[in-house]
User: Fold these one by one.
Assistant:
Number 1:
Amino acid sequence: MAERSDFPFVSIVVPAYNAAGTLAACLDALHAQSYPRDCYEVIVVDDASTDETVQIARRAGAQVVAEGKLGKSGVRNRGAQEARGEIVLFTDADCEPLPTWVETMVAPFRRDPEVVGVKGAYLSRQREPLARFTQVEVEERYDRMARQETIDFIDTYAAGYRRDLFLEFGGFDETLPEVEDQDLSFRLARAGKKMLFIPDARVYHRHATSVRRYFWRKFAIATWKHLLINRYPERFLSDSRTPQSLKVQMGLALLMTLLAVPALFAPAARRALAGVSVAFLLACFPFLRKAARRDPAILPFSLVMLWVRAEALVLGYLKGILKFRGRKTA
């Protein structure tokens, strides 16, 4: 049996804003971990909530940091500054980690001193079509990441870093309202730091169920992604997370949009639109095949949502081109 000294002390940071509806379940899950209880702490950083978030966190025995409105990067950075652990883990207030989550996230750091960051995976219990579509969407990315020895992107819902390196690299960029996790990951990757995908480090999550919210979320991420490409042009062609088929879908969705009006008047444009539409379906085939195996009931819905996703991403990216035009700062 491992001695207590074999377990590094871990700080788990949970940013929270008006999280009264989900925070208790998150903290219950964190207090039920297989990792030795005296070897980790839970820190809830409140982002100026107006509900009972702070009271719920205190009743659950979590350490609470409440210093006003910091923003989603600011609360995570503040949590890391407050942390006592040599490893800092992040999860979200609407997540419920499995009992082995901390143990599984920490294991790569214990095995390999070169590892500076790790990324876990989503699970979902939701039955709404959009949530089920989103779960297949993230699992498509997991398939890509699982084939790679190292990764260059860590999401904040199940993230782990060596605290000293996290602080040395400045944590999350607080000037970015989106893609701050990608920015930190790309900075670490550019410096040659080793990051791993740990698919067994899983958390239950509540995905969005509103198509409108999903669209605007993708739109915002794509807008700020262009700024990241200005900062890290080496990530334009490929990164460890984004399926290449998604980029093809975005290009074809743009062509479909450009051909839509001419197709009302010109037979040649209608034929071109039909051809591009068929090409779009072919580009979606890897996703549809995965959906058919995992959750075939959402296949018709997935066809619609793949187009919605591609349109949101391409329109957001076009906005980013206009907004940032060669700039590397927000």
Note: The beta strands are 10-16, 40-46, 63-66, 87-91, 95-97, 115-123, 158-162, 194-205.
Number 2:
Amino acid sequence: MAVGLLTAMFLSFVLQIFFRYVLNHPLGWTLEACLMTWLWVVFWGSAFLVDDRDHVKFDMFYLSAGPRLRRVFALISALAVLAGFGGSFPGSLDYVTFMKIETSSTLGIRLDYVFSVYVIFAAAIVVRYGLRAVRLIRGRDPDGNEEHAHGLGPYE
């Protein structure tokens, strides 16, 4: 999916350059296509391709803590993400479904289709962090180092 979206975005971009600078006839829809495909790539990729450890984090305190405290920090973070995305989910869904009355200016695509990727993203994040919270409550190591999961690591 991500490769297909990036390919569509790149082809739209190249087409726009060709029409603008070679034929001197800019196309309006290519910019809109690039924006929509970029939106979908970012949210789709964040939902399904980017692992938790790949996100940029401020983890100075986390890395200096022992395995048990790391698990507590990770659980608090997972619950905060769940609260934020879970709490905003009904409003986000309501907004996206409301946008069915609007269409994009050039391509005429209904905006609920365009923004539906955010609902998919939010649902995936809720599921991902819900599963993470369950694993952490069951005593799993937040970093995936099972030999350190029960406080037996080198930091204690």
Note: The chain has two domains: 1-50, 54-156.
Number 3:
Amino acid sequence: MSSNHDATSTPGLGFVGSMTASISHEIKNVLAIVNENAGLLEDLALLAEKGRPLSPDRLKTMSANIRRQVQRADDIIRRLNRFAHSTHEPAATTDLGEILEFTAALVARLAAMKNVTLSVAMAAPVAVRIRPFVLENLLWICLKNLFAVTQDNRTVVLGAQALDGQIAITLQMGAGLPLTALGAQVASEGQPLLAALRAEVSVDAEQHLMRLTMRPAQDE
């Protein structure tokens, strides 16, 4: 699937801005925890100077806490690095399951703020030639509009399957959402992305899902 869509387009800029803000907030949270532990270590050092013995168990606990946060920060930076590279990657044959998993990880913090749990369920691997950033952007538009109207604890299951020469990506959302309005909003806001992906958006009220149906270009 070819596409001229990139991070300088209106949907792309909004997506990059939202993800950068969310990821930077995650990093700040990590730094705050590391700083708190550094302060505790400083307090212990001052007490030790006054003759109070250090607790090895407490030092080990604090060391483990710092190590966990360093690992967490490394995971966040890896995610940010992958996202940054995806903004200019050309079309390539890609496993849709990986894109769905990565998108779910990107927006996990924002989903948690809305009491939404994201998961991915794939019956079988699905590969398609695509620009990952374009699909990630479209999925974000689907999810942010969902976040705007959901009011309770909700699980959203992302999936994809190939059928009759088409690729169907589904967002199983559960009951109680204005699916028709959501579908219309995604179709309007995501129009350039849908065009780039040769895709259409539809909803299924009986199955409580939104479906993105893509038609892979035959010349690629």
Note: The chain is about 55% helix and 20% strand.
Number 4:
Amino acid sequence: MSIAARLGDYLANQHINYSTVEHIPTQSSIGSAIASYIPPEYIAKAVILEDHQGRYVMAILPANRKICLRSLGQQLDATLQLVHEKELGAMFTDCATGAIPAASQAYNMNAIVDDVLLELNDVYLESGDHQTLIHLDKPQFQKLMGNIKHLRFSAASLH
């Protein structure tokens, strides 16, 4: 599958330079980190949330961290819950199940990015399949994130 069509089009239209990293098929962002020998804190994962008014938001955070829903909800003045994976297929039709790219703009979705990612010199994200990562250097990742709101809303995971 490689890069999801909408993601590829968005990156091209925005003149965002990237490279790809192929790895054996995996089922999680942590698995992708292990398979590609990339520290998991450099992998940006996308988690889709729904607020109390039925609006969707993509939370973008490092693969080795977990969302603090209460903290994020307080910062956004919203009640948030995780969207079930079975609902995501209709939103991300060009992606394999569970391989959502951390590029909300390509899918016309509001997003929030954890500040931790904006501090990194290199960031990797799922491409829409389970065996390709997209590599962005700091300027290109910041360009991809554009005007997306950024906060600290994650904590170390118990992995």
Note: The beta strands are 19-22, 43-51, 56-62, 65-67, 80-82, 110-114, 122-126, 132-137, 149-151, 154-156.
